[in-house]
Design a protein that fits this description.
Elements (H helix, E strand, L loop, with lengths): L20 E4 L4 E9 L2 E7 L5 E9 L12 E3 L6 E5 L3 E6 L5
Antiparallel strand pairs: 1-2, 2-3, 3-4, 4-7, 5-6, 6-7
Length: 100
């Protein structure tokens, strides 16, 4: 997806993991970091300065699989409740709500 006037990746703050990816938006952007958490994924979103915007445990929405040891790209639409990952097609990860 090519968005007009997207921000280039800023200098990576030292607090952001090397494997985090920059996802540019119009006039804004965020860093996303994914790590395996048993059968789920822990995803943290950082603002351009390295402040954590949100973190949570996510699961794959459908029967797709994601292997984070292989190349992938964070793509739009991604936010604190849903993250889209391109790896041989678009894989949707949805945040698991905390148990009430």
């Amino acid at each position: 997806m090519n968005i007009k006037e997207t921000l280039p990746a800023p200098k990576r703050p030292s607090c952001i993991p090397d494997t985090a990816q920059w996802l540019a938006g119009e006039g804004a952007g965020s860093w996303f970091h994914i790590k395996q958490a048993n059968k789920h994924f822990e995803i943290t979103r950082y603002n351009p300065d390295g402040k954590v915007e949100c973190t949570g445990i996510f699961q794959i929405k459908n029967m797709d699989t994601l292997d984070i040891s292989l190349p992938y790209n964070i793509v739009h639409l991604s936010h604190c409740k849903k993250v889209s990952v391109e790896q041989g097609g678009v894989i949707i990860l949805e945040r698991l709500e905390p148990e009430q």
